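User: What would this chain look like folded?
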Amino acid sequence: MPLMRSWVESANSPDTDFPLNNLPYGVFTRDGAEGRCGVAIGDMILDVTAAEEAEVIYPVRHTTVFDVPHWNAFMELGPDAWAAFRDRLTALLAEGSPDRAAVEPFLVPQAEVQMLMPLAVAEYTDFYAGRHHATNVGTMFRGAENALPPNWLHIPIGYNGRASSVVVSGTDVQRPWGQLKAPDADAPVFAPCKRFDFELEMGAIVGQPSDGMVSVAEADRMIFGYVLLNDWSARDIQAWEYQPLGPFQAKATATTISPWIVTAAALNAFRVDTPERDVQLLPYLRQPGPMLYDIALEVDLAPEGGTATTITRTNYAEMYYSSAQQLAHHTSSGCPMNVGDLLGSGTISGSTKPERGSLLELSWGGKEPLALDGGVTRSFIEDGDTITLRGAAKGDGYRVGFGACSGTVRPAQQKPDWA
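Assistant: Here's the prediction, encoded as structure tokens.
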């Protein structure tokens, strides 16, 4: 699909994340006012809360859904409403649109706003579904012959995380305290995490509820859109606590998402197949068509006061399980899914070292420190470091991007006297 041209000139640049082909959804505030729903177009935002009030654009006539600072109410309307609203937005913002004069007053420069959480996160589930990442981590801890658990090629492994600690890009992240135990120690100590890490992921947003099992095809239609996701991880806390039940406090500090929800419709042109299977999946997990996306991803690390170094470049197409498969599996026990549920893809790594999606892999557990621009090295994240995720699907002369997903790590809070 070629670039779709808009009368918003900045949307026609090949360098923007937000051409007319994209039209992602977010929530913004201006001068500290209440959050408003908006659509990114070039370097501008269409204030759809104001446009709905003026009845310039509305998903349902005489019914407001953008009077709240999140997109959940709109998601509840369902896929037909999502498609109709996107078609209307495209017509209003297209080059030569007769409605330009009516729409233009509702444009706000992105440079003048602060982005907020784009949705109210109902529940958060994180998966372990990237084969290269799982192989790397398993090799470090169990050896190459036993790198993948016996169930890994049959099932998308996951765990339930904390919706309460999901934050939007730009929010500082505080280094966590936790129980740490050295291999040669008899007992753990309570101390700040020493091996804090990022994980490069995509997040799928569930836009429709379920009641009972759904197929992979049905799950695919339930997904409203996608965000970049950094699943901050305290590796040393996790090493002590994860046996036998898995991640808990090591993953509860924060999960950062990008501020713009890129809709599944905007990504349709970039669908690709999941990798070939070593073993055939059970019927309920088989896909009727391509359900991954060709999205180029990268991660920058910037020390406090220093320049950023790109430390990872990979692609979402490296995943072994798609979000639709993960969602279908999630419902297989009868577990109800809610509007606003967030599914983390699991760490996205490629087959080579520069494609690894975490410092755990890049430094091989701290044994091979990573060289950054400016002559410094990192095994894990230090206080003051800023991690920034970026991603875009690349078309013919345009890109469908997500904006930045960024967070700066601050020192651990002072230890209370009673701790």
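Residues 9-116 form a domain with the SH3 type barrels. fold (CATH 2.30.30.230). If you want, I can go into more detail on any region.
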